[in-house]
Specification:
With 273 residues, the chain is of the alpha+beta class. The chain has ten helices and eleven strands. The protein has a seven-stranded mixed β-sheet with strand order 1-2-3-11-4-7-8, sandwiched between helices. The chain has a two-stranded antiparallel sheet with strand order 5-6. A hairpin with a 5-residue loop joins β9 and β10. The longest helix has 19 residues. The N and C termini lie far apart (48 Å).
Length: 273
């Protein structure tokens, strides 16, 4: 079965409006979810939409919340997402980083108390569409063990780099594990194995079985110890720049919310002009 872009977007939009979102917020979220699905990022498209809806219904996400700047330090600002919709908060934060970059050449926004932003690459592409180099990352709850350990203690903190280009933007969007949890879930649903080992099974052996990795909760970091260390550094940076929570504190809540994020934009015209 194939569904057109507009039909899927309209279905998302109607569900979000019914859940109480304003027209502009429902339109933005519907577009982002549909683009994720259209670009083949199924883990953060249709498959992740029920998760957002359940958090809206439970009240974990405040659909009325407006992100607010709490501290301005020239090219760096701190914002409070007030537990609002993660996609909306991310779009606003990167938009503000772009505005600062257009004025000063570079802009950086640290965002705290926000929720899952879904596909991270969407905000890098947002910067690239505005003629800026974009970088952003988020921390998460504990999702994988530090290198050499068995128990989950660090986040799978995704990061993005995007570079504008006339022939199509260059985009890097990656988690800190060999395969993201979302990718593991998709492949498990399909009954497919990973092309390369992505983690350990319950016996401590490397495996290509996504279900075994999800069960053991021992995803393999990219670059082994290097990916593990990078996850820690991104967590610390996000918490410090935003003034928000670290992965340790997020995990203590029992669910992934009130995460910390960083958005950076560099105006290409200022750099090469």
């Amino acid at each position: 079965m194939r569904v057109s872009f507009d039909v899927l977007k309209d279905a998302f939009y109607k569900a979000l409006v019914k859940a109480g979102l304003s027209d502009d917020r429902a339109s933005l979220c519907a577009r982002l979810f549909t683009e994720n699905q259209c670009d083949g990022v199924y883990s953060h498209g249709l498959n992740r939409f029920p998760s957002l809806m359940s958090k809206i219904v439970s009240g974990q996400i405040d659909i009325q919340a407006e992100p607010k700047c709490t501290k301005a330090l020239g090219v760096v600002e701190q914002w409070d997402g007030k537990m609002g919709i993660g996609l909306v908060n991310a779009h606003v934060a990167m938009g503000r980083a772009i505005e600062i970059a257009k004025e000063h050449g570079m802009g950086c926004v640290g965002l705290r108390n926000t929720n899952h932003w879904m596909r991270a690459g969407a905000y890098g592409l947002q910067a690239a569409d505005a003629g800026c180099i974009g970088m952003c990352w988020t921390n998460t709850t504990v999702l994988m063990p530090p290198w050499g350990a068995k128990e989950k203690r660090i986040g799978n903190n995704p990061m993005v780099m995007a570079i504008p280009r006339d022939g199509g933007h260059l985009l890097l969007d990656m988690a800190m594990s060999q395969y993201s949890n979302g990718k593991l879930e998709i492949l498990k649903q399909r009954g497919e194995d990973l092309p390369l080992a992505g983690g350990y099974d319950s016996d401590g052996d490397l495996t290509c079985d996504p279900g075994a990795i999800l069960s053991s909760k021992r995803a393999l970091p990219i670059g082994y110890w290097k990916g593990s260390a990078l996850a820690v550094m991104l967590d610390v940076l996000a918490a410090v720049i935003s003034g928000g929570q670290s992965t340790h504190k997020i995990a203590a809540q029992g669910d992934e919310y009130a995460v910390s994020q960083t958005y950076i934009a560099l105006d290409v015209t200022s750099l090469v002009g």
